[in-house]
Every structure is written in C-alpha cells, then in structure tokens.
Amino acid sequence: MIQPEDIRGIIHSHSNWSDGSNTLEEMALAAKEQGFEYLVISDHSKSAFYAQGLHEEKIRAQHQLIDELNNKLTGFTIFKSIESDILYDGSLDYSNAVLETFDLVIASVHSILKMTEEKAMQRLITAIENPYTTILGHMTGRLLLSRKGYPVDHKKIIDACAANRVVIELNAHPSRLDIDWRHIDYALEKNVMISIDPDAHNIDGFKDTRYGVLSAQKAMVTKEQNLSSMGLAEFRNYLKKNKGCQIMM
Ligand SMILES: [Zn+2]
Ligand SMILES: [Zn+2]
To answer: Which domains, and CATH codes, for the chain?
Structure first.
C-alpha cells in the first residue's frame, strides 16, 4: 500500500504567475530541498481570469524561465504544464499549437459548475478525448463541507480515461479529495493510473499530499498505480511516451 514517502514528485502546483503565492524558483527549490525529484508547474489557463490565468505570451515567458532554472538545477526538473480550463463545450482553452508546448496538461472544470449530469459528462468526456489531456483534474469540483460536486457517472468517466490513457487526479487538498476514494477501485480495475497531487498554491501546500495518500490507502492503491510515485527518469519517459498518444491510435 502506498506510503507518504512514496510521493517522489509534486504534480499540480501554482506559482505567483497565476494565483499561487510563491515564485516558481521558490517552489522548485523548496520541492528539491524536501527531497522531491521534480515539480510540475501548472498555473491557471487564460479563461481563469479571476486567477490571473496565463495568456499565450506569458506561457512563452514562463517556459523560458523554466528552461533557465532547469539548466541551473541538478538532479531535479521542473516540468511545463498548465491547468487548462475545460470550457462549456468541453474544449480546452488554447490552440493545439500552444497545448503542444507543454510536457503535460491537467484539464479541470472551474466555471459553470451548476450543470446536469448529461452536460457534465459531455464536457468531461470531450476533455478526456482531447489528445493533449494528460490528467483529469479534480473530477467533480466538490469542496467538502461547502460545495457538492456536479453529478457524474464515475464508471463512464473511468472507462473513457482507460480508452484515452488519461490519468485521474486524486486531488489531495483536504477540502477536495477528488476523485472520491470509493471510486478508485474501479479505476484500478481498468488499469487507469491515479495521480496524488497537492494542487499546491504555495510551498506549504506540498504537505497536503499526505491527505491524498491517506485517501488512496483506503482504496488500497500501490505506489505503482500512482503517477507521482514515479522517479524522475520514469516520469520523463512516461510523458514522452504518452504525449499525443491518442493521435496515433
Ligand atoms: Zn483546479
Ligand atoms: Zn490547481
């Protein structure tokens, strides 16, 4: 069963380029210092204007900074990502040419959360079928004790993730814990990987991975079934192999 020390990289984090409070460099140095092998920086996308989501020119600038930092860091890598909004029609909010520039894409719903199951499913399935989607972020949008998630058919979403080789996030923020652990066994049965991600908005947020691990333990997840348990080389390979894989199928 997965243990807290099996988390080897921070996947899903925000810097002060969007609504996080630390600089990208501070986030990377802190993650390295804490023994993590990589940081996936996934600031908000341009439709999340309330969170200072990144327009295309900012993405180019951030990628340049990441390249510079990666040249300085040894034994640690920052991966280029984005938490791309799933728009009302299910599309992501950048062109394919821009999506192509990321090492991985986390697709999440942040707007118009009040919807029928039919609409929620159409949006999510369309996003899962997008060849650039690597991880489906916080599947239902629920906030524990304050907001119910939109209704979804978990099995159908998991089936779609299996068919499109999309990883399902276990968002480890204590108010999310989304995907709910009770649905994880079906994901594992379908060989869909889970990713225990802190959704960190500052350095302090890294430690939320522990709540994700506790939740994953209830579903008997092993470290082999969790994306953020991959070491640096394995993670890099995984991304290379899976980028745009749906296009080739
Ligand atoms: Zn989000
Ligand atoms: Zn996020």
So the answer is: 4-248 (3.20.20.140)
**Is a pLDDT exceeding 80 seen at residue 167?**
yes
Q: Which ligand is nearest to the CA of 109?
A: 1
Instruction: Say how many Å lie between the CA of residue 108 and the centre of ligand 2.
Output: 8
Q: How many CB atoms lie within 10 A of CB 247?
A: 9
Q: Nearest bound ligand to CA 198?
A: 2
Mean pLDDT of the chain: 96
Ligand 2 centroid to residue 185 C-alpha, Å = 24
How many residues would you count in the chain? 249
Residue 193, pLDDT > 90, answer: yes
Q: 64-92 pLDDT, tens per residue?
A: 999 999 999 999 999 999 999 999 999 99
CA distances from 28 to 15, 63, 155, 239 (A): 10, 14, 36, 19
Side by side, which strands form the sheet with 167-171?
A: 9-13, 38-44, 77-85, 104-108, 135-136, 167-171, 194-197
Going from the C-alpha of 225 to that of each of 1, 12, 129, 135, the distances in angstroms are 10, 17, 21, 14
Can you give the pLDDT at residue 133?
98
Output the DSSP codes for 169-191: EEE-STTT-BS-GGGHHHHHHTT
Angle at 109 between CA 104 and CA 111, to 5 degrees: 135
